[in-house]
Amino acid sequence: MVGVPRQRRWRADDVPELSGRTAVITGANSGIGFEAAKVLAGRGVTVVLACRNPVKAQAAVDRIRAVAPEADLSTLEMDLNSLASVRKAADELLAKHSVIDLLINNAGVIMLPHGQTEDGFEQHFGINHLAHFAFTGLVLNAVLAAEAGRVVTVGSNGHRMGKLDFDDLAFTQGYKPLRGYGRSKLANLLFAYELQRRLEAAGVPARSLAAHPGGANTDAGGFAGSAGKQQIKKVIDYIPNPIVHSAHKGALPILRAAVDPSTKGGEYYGPSGLLKMTGRPVVVSSNAASRDPKTAQRLWELSETLTGVTYPL
Fold first, then answer.
1. pTM over 0.85
2. Containing H/E element for 192?
3. Which of 55, 127, 199, 253 allows an S-S link to 269, with CB 3.0 to 4.6 Å?
4. Which domains does the chain have, with CATH numbers?
5. What backbone torsions phi and psi does residue 169 show, to the nearest 5 degrees?
């Protein structure tokens, strides 16, 4: 009996030569963002590392240039904890780049104690969702100016534990760090899918996709500080090896969503293996809540109100 041939594993080697393209990656100084930046820079992409800490961003640039001396790299200071910083960064970016082929919304935080951003939003929701919503809207015209621009929003398996409460987005009731994180990752997927619907309705060739790294062993924690990072390390150390893989492998679903010509708008990429934590990057499913267009529309309209950013679609 002749079966269907197994799909060949998609690897970093499958990223084509992309000279002349420009990519912007938030949180690219470490983890999967850094790995994605390194691969793209090695394929001729002009890569902008949008990071909170300019010293760490420059150190990441230096590490990439050590293995790819001809890489075209620059840094952009942006603190997702502040919408003022996001607006300033968007202005600086557009002053230098009128065309953005790839926007990878990767930066994020996890396991934060309850607290607020500079603008008064619950931290996970404000940093992981609202800041990226604002940044994408502010630079979207440059993405639309590309021949086939893409926006890739990084999600997480954690979206399955998220639940949006529009009456308590500040999460004043029943807050737990992982619940806050799950809510923000659910919002990321609702945003990615709704952006694709709006791009299609506008009749433009740009695409919005989502991807998640699975159980990538990274320096997660963002603003959590040493205590939060120690908690995350304890969790990672406890997890059995079969569902944890390297940051490089965790970056592959993001890279595939960003550059594979066979992808379609609205797809979600992640690892293929056990619990969708490790394995080759393939199209994966997300829960029903993330696919609800009515919730997505409500979140979109609220996000425009909260950020003051209206999309040019």
1. yes
2. helix 177-202
3. 253
4. 14-303 (3.40.50.720)
5. -70, -20
